[in-house]
TrEMBL record, chain A:
<feature type="region of interest" description="Disordered">
    <location>
        <begin position="167"/>
        <end position="238"/>
    </location>
</feature>
<dbReference type="GO" id="GO:0006355">
    <property type="term" value="P:regulation of DNA-templated transcription"/>
</dbReference>
<dbReference type="InterPro" id="IPR045279">
    <property type="entry name" value="ARR-like"/>
</dbReference>
<keyword id="KW-0805">Transcription regulation</keyword>
<feature type="compositionally biased region" description="Low complexity">
    <location>
        <begin position="199"/>
        <end position="225"/>
    </location>
</feature>
<keyword id="KW-0539">Nucleus</keyword>
<keyword id="KW-0804">Transcription</keyword>
<dbReference type="GO" id="GO:0000160">
    <property type="term" value="P:phosphorelay signal transduction system"/>
</dbReference>
<feature type="modified residue" description="4-aspartylphosphate">
    <location>
        <position position="94"/>
    </location>
</feature>
Automatic annotation (TrEMBL), chain B:
<dbReference type="InterPro" id="IPR008207">
    <property type="entry name" value="Sig_transdc_His_kin_Hpt_dom"/>
</dbReference>
<keyword id="KW-0902">Two-component regulatory system</keyword>
<keyword id="KW-0007">Acetylation</keyword>
<dbReference type="GO" id="GO:0000160">
    <property type="term" value="P:phosphorelay signal transduction system"/>
</dbReference>
<keyword id="KW-0539">Nucleus</keyword>
<dbReference type="InterPro" id="IPR045871">
    <property type="entry name" value="AHP1-5/YPD1"/>
</dbReference>
<dbReference type="GO" id="GO:0009927">
    <property type="term" value="F:histidine phosphotransfer kinase activity"/>
</dbReference>
<dbReference type="Pfam" id="PF01627">
    <property type="entry name" value="Hpt"/>
</dbReference>
<dbReference type="GO" id="GO:0005829">
    <property type="term" value="C:cytosol"/>
</dbReference>
């Protein structure tokens, strides 16, 4: 399948210098958060991947919107049975990319039946309110100003943990403004994905000096809703 | 042994602080250092190495685009500057990033001369940073080889 070659070959050649690609991927833990990161900049891909791994996420990093759609099985109209089992808990994408922008990718994801419930976060180096509004209106979960920091990713991680854990179905705990996330908690975790996914490189928890917050740490109050968070951000350096 | 390590650590700390003070690096470099640990001791060095490769490639292609005065592809140059600004920002290469800001302005008004000056400056800045960081990483290596730990450096 071109998908496998497209994603893993790309990553192998990028990762070899860093040594990340040499790490063995452990068996996929269905409780672990799997993030699809999309950015045309190699430097940014490396950084975001590291940021996500350090917060205990499994990461698949691709260099374009097209590759992302390919990975998700959304690149053609026929739905593929295998991809029904693909577990992606978060998609984080750069806004400014040649070919397909992050906004266009966001729209395609939200139009799909299989992935419309997956939170999509947009990253951009430019603090343009109209851009931010447009993305949020289209259903983006959050908007991060580049350069992305550890604190930004930890924050994302906090509101994800609640949704993915099967045990965490205690609805009253979910604040009102995040109630739309409760639909994610209702999704039965899929069976382990087919081998092609596990071959896509990710690292185990153990080798990372993990600073992942325990679930109890995440107390999301209404003031932390995406829009408020965005407003509270100081303007990026431009 | 201890004093050698302490001396090297002190040198490292002073040198790193000076890079911030002289404006070569900004807070994002600090953020990158946070992502490095015993398991990935070369993370920062490898990311900046990719960044410098990026610089070299982009500068070359922008140089080609700016070559003939009668036929400058400002769109291409703008794209290059955008990419350079992005990656310099992501690694904390402050001076490089700042040149990119001026560079973009020259591009916007299609000022070829201005672009050429900025191109020269960005070339100078990335090479300068490359040398400085090489010295920093060498110090790091010496500390590790002497059995010491890399100090956490707090930049106010």
């Amino acid at each position: 399948m071109p998908l496998d070659g497209g994603v893993s070959c790309l990553r192998r050649s990028e990762m070899i210098g860093i040594g990340i690609g040499e790490l063995e991927s452990p068996p996929l833990d269905s409780d672990q958060v799997h993030v699809l990161a999309v950015d045309d900049s190699l430097v940014d891909r490396i950084v975001i991947e590291r940021l996500l791994r350090i917060t205990s996420c499994k990461v698949t990093a691709v260099d374009s919107g097209w590759r992302a759609l390919e990975f998700l099985g959304l690149d053609d109209d026929k739905s593929s049975v295998e991809f029904d089992r693909l577990k992606v808990d978060l998609i984080i994408t750069d806004y400014c990319m040649p070919g397909m922008t992050g906004y266009e990718l966001l729209k395609k994801i939200k139009e799909s039946t299989s992935f419309r419930e997956v939170p999509v976060v947009i990253m951009s180096s430019e603090n343009v309110l109209t851009r931010i509004d447009r993305c949020l209106e289209e259903g983006a979960e959050d908007f991060l100003l580049k350069p992305v920091k550890l604190a930004d990713v930890k924050r994302l991680r906090t509101y994800l943990t609640r949704d993915v854990k099967v045990s965490d179905r205690n609805k009253p705990k979910v604040p009102e403004d995040l109630s739309r996330f409760s639909s994610l908690a209702m999704v039965t975790p899929p069976p382990p994905p087919p081998p092609s996914i596990t071959s896509v490189k990710s690292s185990s928890l153990e080798e990372i000096v993990s600073s992942s917050p325990p679930p109890s740490e995440s107390s999301i109050s209404p003031v932390d809703s995406p829009i408020r968070r965005m407003e509270m951000r100081s303007p990026g350096l431009d | 042994m201890n004093t050698v390590v302490a001396q090297l650590q002190r040198q490292f700390q002073d040198y790193l602080v000076s890079l911030y003070q002289q404006g070569f690096l900004d807070n994002q470099f600090t953020e990158l250092r946070k992502l490095q640990d015993e398991g990935t001791p070369d993370f920062v060095a490898e990311v900046v190495s990719l960044f410098f490769d990026d610089c070299s490639k982009l500068i070359n292609s922008m140089s080609r685009s700016l070559e003939r005065p009668e036929n400058v592809d400002f769109k291409q140059v703008d794209s290059g500057v955008h990419q350079l600004k992005g990656s310099s920002s992501s690694v904390g290469a402050r001076r490089v990033k700042n040149v990119c800001i001026s560079f973009k302005e020259c591009c916007d008004v299609q000022n070829r001369e201005g672009c050429l000056r900025c191109l020269q400056q960005v070339d100078y800045e990335y090479k300068m940073l490359k040398t400085k960081l090489q010295d920093l990483f060498n110090l790091e290596q010496q500390i590790v080889q002497a059995g010491g730990a890399i100090p956490q450096v707090n930049i106010n």
